[in-house]
Specification:
This protein is α/β, with parallel strands linked by helices. The protein has 18 helices and 18 strands. Strand 6 (200-203), helix 9 and strand 7 form a beta-alpha-beta unit.
């Protein structure tokens, strides 16, 4: 299952690669002892154990290498080493007899070799060979894409299967016989390195002149070829007094209609109660009477019936700046969510209701914020599973790559690297663990915001609030965003991913903290991330 790929580094801990430290006779005795122990003493059961009656041996041929053998037989390197009692991986000789557990590939499979570096990336190797990137890491005994740089990776050539429409199979699965043609064709497998449009979303600021809004929507639908667009609906700027609406409503009309005309799915995040509905006018926060919010949601659903696919109920309510006037509590937020869910579903059951994405702060003082993991547990205890079709998450990575977990990378940025909330992968894994705690693993996660920022080419100093931006440039921003999209679409539990953001940097008087995350500097000045996302192949599924 795709969700299991998160655990590759845990299932197959990396074996050391070091030069021999013992005399030849001692090493030979150790290898012999390892073989004896392997065949006499049973080890713990593993998913890679050979089926009953399946015992394979192989005689090492000229030119063989550990990596190429692991790729040929579809097993991780460390398992091959342990199966043969190898304590010094530099020992591999022509004529050596190896035990091959759980062989899943035929010996005549073509094995490809890739030197990972500036010319060939891990994702390019995956695309050329027809394997998932996580499979390449597993076969070559690597924990993360960062470790692949500068190494030679081996991979079975499964590209012919992709071309034939069968798709790549994992190295521990035999290729099944072709099934009878169904009456309704099943979706084609995703080619390695391609992105699925229905999983691609981006948030933009669309309260702009009509011609600029249409240009931005054209970029999303036709140039980037994304499937989703997100907009944060500022209730306070639209319904300035009860039942009376400002010109901002016309701009929202233009966005929804324009997206619908371009076959874009729309996610609206509805936030910020107007002053007339609140007990305080400080900052942003919920209404005193939740029914005022429900009435506004009902108004939107009726106005845009059939043209809005999903609604996110509020944004980051675990922050005081978003929930001023209320108590920072997951239970209190679910009180708002419950009525919102019933209101939306009562008007249009087809709309996907997403719980608010939480800010991964790691701070839990109860005044400025509540840690999002704790807050999510509070939401589940208050009945979240009854009032949301999907769980919102904001897995930002600060300056850490998306494939790295806390806190293991000695070559990573020296700041914002010491807590799981700073890591894209940790946040997603923690949310899945909390879902499992409450028996709710089937409910998908929607990344309603994610991204990486850089101040490069903005001609502005690094914001004091985000010192980690000094370690980011446009190339890294592009690489991390692309890889996060590629990683997430391998997980069956992940819904659409919404990149933050498209165009804040193009606005007058923009907030530098937000502009750093834009992939447009000006309407005619795209960043590297925009160009990479534009050029990567897309498919419909």
């Amino acid at each position: 299952m795709p969700s299991q790929r998160l655990q590759v580094g845990l299932l197959y801990p990396k074996s050391p690669r070091r030069k021999a430290r013992f005399p030849f006779r001692v090493r030979a005795l150790l290898v012999l002892a390892g073989l004896v122990l392997f065949f006499i003493i049973p080890g713990p059961p593993r998913s890679q154990a050979a089926p009953a009656g399946q015992v394979d041996f192989y005689i090492v041929q000229p030119g063989d290498a550990w990596g190429s053998l692991a790729a040929r037989f579809g097993i991780p390197l460390d398992l091959l080493w342990r199966a043969n009692g190898v304590v010094n991986p530099t020992l591999l000789k022509e004529g050596q007899r190896l035990f091959i557990p759980a062989s899943a590939s035929q010996e005549d499979n073509e094995v490809l070799a890739f030197d990972i570096g500036p010319e060939v990336s891990l994702w390019e190797a995956a695309l050329r060979s027809g394997n998932a990137p996580t499979v390449l890491l597993q076969l070559n005994d690597l924990d993360s894409p960062a470790e692949a740089w500068g190494q030679r990776l081996y991979a079975p050539n499964r590209q012919a299967l992709v071309a034939a429409g069968q798709g790549p199979s994992t190295p521990t699965q035999a290729n099944p016989a072709p099934a009878p043609q169904p009456e309704s064709p099943t979706p084609a497998p995703v080619p390695q390195g391609a992105l699925v449009r229905s999983r691609l979303g981006i948030q933009g600021h669309f309260s702009v002149p009509d011609d600029q809004r249409d240009m931005l929507l054209d970029m999303i639908a036709y140039d980037l070829n994304f499937g989703w667009v997100k907009y944060q609906v500022d209730w306070s700027s639209i319904e300035y007094i009860p039942g009376h609406y400002s010109i901002e409503l016309e701009k929202l009309d233009g966005l929804v209609e324009g997206a619908f005309d371009r076959n874009l799915q729309v996610l609206l995040s509805v936030v910020k109660a107007p002053d007339w509905a609140r007990t305080t006018t400080e900052g942003n926060g919920p209404p005193a009477d939740y029914n005022d919010y429900y009435n506004f949601l009902r108004f939107l659903v009726q106005r845009y019936r059939g043209k809005v696919a999903a609604i996110e109920v509020w944004n980051e309510p675990n922050l005081h700046i978003e929930w001023n006037g209320g108590t920072l509590s997951g239970a209190e937020y679910v009180g708002l969510l419950a009525g919102a869910y019933e209101t939306i579903k009562g008007e249009d059951a087809s709309i996907t209701v997403v719980s608010a994405g939480l800010a991964p702060t790691g701070v839990n003082d109860g005044i400025s914020s509540v840690d999002d993991r704790l807050y999510l547990r509070q939401m589940y205890e208050a009945g979240l599973a009854n009032y949301a079709d999907a769980v919102g998450v904001h897995p930002y990575g600060w300056a850490n790559p998306p494939w790295i977990r806390c806190c293991r990378d000695p070559n990573g940025p020296p700041t914002h690297n010491d807590h799981p909330s700073f890591f894209f992968l940790n946040t997603i894994e923690d949310y899945r663990s909390i879902q499992a705690e409450f028996g709710d693993s089937e409910r998908p996660l929607w990344a309603t915001e994610f991204g990486w920022g850089t101040m490069e080419r903005l001609d502005l100093p690094i914001p004091g609030e985000q010192p980690f931006l000094v370690y980011m440039n446009e190339e890294r921003q592009a690489e991390y965003i692309r890889d996060a999209f590629l990683m997430a679409q391998e997980w069956d539990f992940m819904g659409p991913m919404f990149l933050w953001n498209l165009n804040v940097a193009t606005l007058e008087g923009f907030d530098a903290n937000q502009a750093a995350y834009s992939i447009l500097i000006e309407l005619d000045r795209p960043r590297v991330a925009y160009q990479v996302l534009r050029d990567i192949p897309k498919i419909d599924q």
